């Protein structure tokens, strides 16, 4: 006969551990020197009661009053309370057992709530109150007590230490079973929130007794015969019937967490882990979120036919205790005083538009106008909704098409990192259902469900699609509805629904022949259908034209980055803005909803009519339609948001029109694409600003208005003064230097200029 396996008894006295837990909950204090400041965590010390607060002791009072349902124990507080940190280490190594210990200790510490229930009370509260009254009326009764799980109206969760290392899914081994682990990954699937029973209430049809059966696992067998003393005495064997309202049900949700790209080894595919969320933890994550999830790693046996196939193999899951978002949504960002000061400093800078644009991927040299367009993509225009519920898209769509080696993919990577919800994918590796949604079976309920693709995961974010020209035509048609209506209509396997995909599309593509061939027409080089091109607000053509000066600066910039692993000092002698500050600045800018005044609306109308009259010149590039007019409004609204303005200005419209012209500038000859003299550009700008809505020249214009427009265009006040000096024979400075007056120019002489 084989010898029995040796037993292992850890040298832990759980009665002493309960005493430590009681001491911690009662005596842990935080020092508060100034009520306006954040309390500092510290060990318990003998100080005046006014200088100390007892957070856990106060939370137990609110739990007893039914105003709080979750008690989160920070392991940093537990470690700070003891010099040896033994209790914190024991909790990390045997978390599941210590959850039970904390429940037992808190049950003894909580005062009994004898408040009479009201109309808003939970049905269980009413049943417990009535049962206590019934038991109190029966003297000497031996009625069974309620199970502890039924009377607990709270949950205990552990928050990991700040120094806890976040693991990937494949790094969680068998030695972590029962321990507290922290996993980093992306949420790919989120199930519906369903009720899960923890205590089943049964009633006997013979004696009327109430039986409460506690459920300790995911599967249980309900009791069929009444175990009460009356039924046993009479041998009646009464049947038990389920009482749903008297049972205790908690909220349950199952999610899937997948490894991130940087965690997958070479030649492997990403692994995923099942995570269970309970009560207040449910609905805390959405598909596409990158999260840190801390919890208890536990095994769970297969059931049903899966158990027959699996044999002795068990599945594993993570019982979540704490969830932290890696990149919060714009609406959920917490602004610290330091970041708020930086945002106010940026808002006062007149050159904030150029500064923020150059701070996007500063390691990439040049492409200033492309980076400005990408900054507008991050900010986005204001989404409008008419009175009859018609939704007008506010998100921008941009396509970067150009020769190889112009850093298109790197720009896409940087944008996906800056955006709170950024999904990066490639055209060849993405199918139609991978971008939209696929139909699959829910592993919990065995129902047919929809699992969102890349565009659904990027909802309220940015979807970066690289190698856009290499996508299959059938898969590319799935994007048409997303780019304009921002929805995905699905009709598969009996499921007919519409999913939200309120995402901006940032696509990168190569010309049809690898490099742009100037000897062929534009439509022959761009291998994209016209219906798709019209949905892009801006289509940049980034051509690699050899120029000695530009090639020298590019080579010096790239060599500096490789030698020092950071970008050189930017032109203009200013430092690049940190990514977190950019994200907070954009979050504040997106709170504004600028309106378009009447004079600006008239200016946009005239500009659109002028663009339509020039449509034949660039008909091969991009067809000018009503979508072009909406694109100008979106970009102008995004520029107004950047200035924290409530109205769109004429300078915003001019900059939007300039970006649309610059996007086509690469097609022009080299002589025409050379940078114009700033004095000539400013003169043309002043001449345009001197015209009224009807196109007539005005005799005077305010210099302050010109200065704001010139600085908004990226020029300096010195360039403006040089322009005024260079054309002094055409105008004069009047009204103590506040106005510029044209000399010898009548309204009829407009065509002479």
From TrEMBL:
<dbReference type="InterPro" id="IPR018525">
    <property type="entry name" value="MCM_CS"/>
</dbReference>
<keyword id="KW-0547">Nucleotide-binding</keyword>
<dbReference type="GO" id="GO:0006279">
    <property type="term" value="P:premeiotic DNA replication"/>
</dbReference>
<dbReference type="GO" id="GO:0031261">
    <property type="term" value="C:DNA replication preinitiation complex"/>
</dbReference>
<feature type="domain" description="MCM C-terminal AAA(+) ATPase">
    <location>
        <begin position="352"/>
        <end position="558"/>
    </location>
</feature>
<dbReference type="Pfam" id="PF00493">
    <property type="entry name" value="MCM"/>
</dbReference>
<dbReference type="GO" id="GO:0017116">
    <property type="term" value="F:single-stranded DNA helicase activity"/>
</dbReference>
<keyword id="KW-0378">Hydrolase</keyword>
<dbReference type="GO" id="GO:0006271">
    <property type="term" value="P:DNA strand elongation involved in DNA replication"/>
</dbReference>
<dbReference type="Pfam" id="PF24901">
    <property type="entry name" value="WHD_MCM7"/>
</dbReference>
<dbReference type="Pfam" id="PF17207">
    <property type="entry name" value="MCM_OB"/>
</dbReference>
<keyword id="KW-0235">DNA replication</keyword>
<dbReference type="GO" id="GO:0003697">
    <property type="term" value="F:single-stranded DNA binding"/>
</dbReference>
<dbReference type="InterPro" id="IPR001208">
    <property type="entry name" value="MCM_dom"/>
</dbReference>
<dbReference type="InterPro" id="IPR008050">
    <property type="entry name" value="MCM7"/>
</dbReference>
<dbReference type="GO" id="GO:0005524">
    <property type="term" value="F:ATP binding"/>
</dbReference>
<keyword id="KW-0067">ATP-binding</keyword>
<dbReference type="GO" id="GO:0006270">
    <property type="term" value="P:DNA replication initiation"/>
</dbReference>
<dbReference type="InterPro" id="IPR012340">
    <property type="entry name" value="NA-bd_OB-fold"/>
</dbReference>
<keyword id="KW-0238">DNA-binding</keyword>
<dbReference type="InterPro" id="IPR033762">
    <property type="entry name" value="MCM_OB"/>
</dbReference>
<dbReference type="InterPro" id="IPR027417">
    <property type="entry name" value="P-loop_NTPase"/>
</dbReference>
<dbReference type="InterPro" id="IPR031327">
    <property type="entry name" value="MCM"/>
</dbReference>
<dbReference type="Pfam" id="PF14551">
    <property type="entry name" value="MCM_N"/>
</dbReference>
<comment type="function">
    <text>Acts as component of the MCM2-7 complex (MCM complex) which is the replicative helicase essential for 'once per cell cycle' DNA replication initiation and elongation in eukaryotic cells. The active ATPase sites in the MCM2-7 ring are formed through the interaction surfaces of two neighboring subunits such that a critical structure of a conserved arginine finger motif is provided in trans relative to the ATP-binding site of the Walker A box of the adjacent subunit. The six ATPase active sites, however, are likely to contribute differentially to the complex helicase activity.</text>
</comment>
<protein>
    <recommendedName>
        <fullName>DNA replication licensing factor MCM7</fullName>
        <ecNumber>3.6.4.12</ecNumber>
    </recommendedName>
</protein>
<keyword id="KW-0131">Cell cycle</keyword>
<dbReference type="GO" id="GO:0000727">
    <property type="term" value="P:double-strand break repair via break-induced replication"/>
</dbReference>
<keyword id="KW-0539">Nucleus</keyword>
<dbReference type="Pfam" id="PF17855">
    <property type="entry name" value="MCM_lid"/>
</dbReference>
<comment type="similarity">
    <text>Belongs to the MCM family.</text>
</comment>
<dbReference type="GO" id="GO:0016887">
    <property type="term" value="F:ATP hydrolysis activity"/>
</dbReference>
<dbReference type="InterPro" id="IPR027925">
    <property type="entry name" value="MCM_N"/>
</dbReference>
<dbReference type="InterPro" id="IPR041562">
    <property type="entry name" value="MCM_lid"/>
</dbReference>
<dbReference type="GO" id="GO:0042555">
    <property type="term" value="C:MCM complex"/>
</dbReference>
<dbReference type="GO" id="GO:0043596">
    <property type="term" value="C:nuclear replication fork"/>
</dbReference>
<dbReference type="GO" id="GO:0005656">
    <property type="term" value="C:nuclear pre-replicative complex"/>
</dbReference>
<dbReference type="InterPro" id="IPR003593">
    <property type="entry name" value="AAA+_ATPase"/>
</dbReference>
<keyword id="KW-0347">Helicase</keyword>
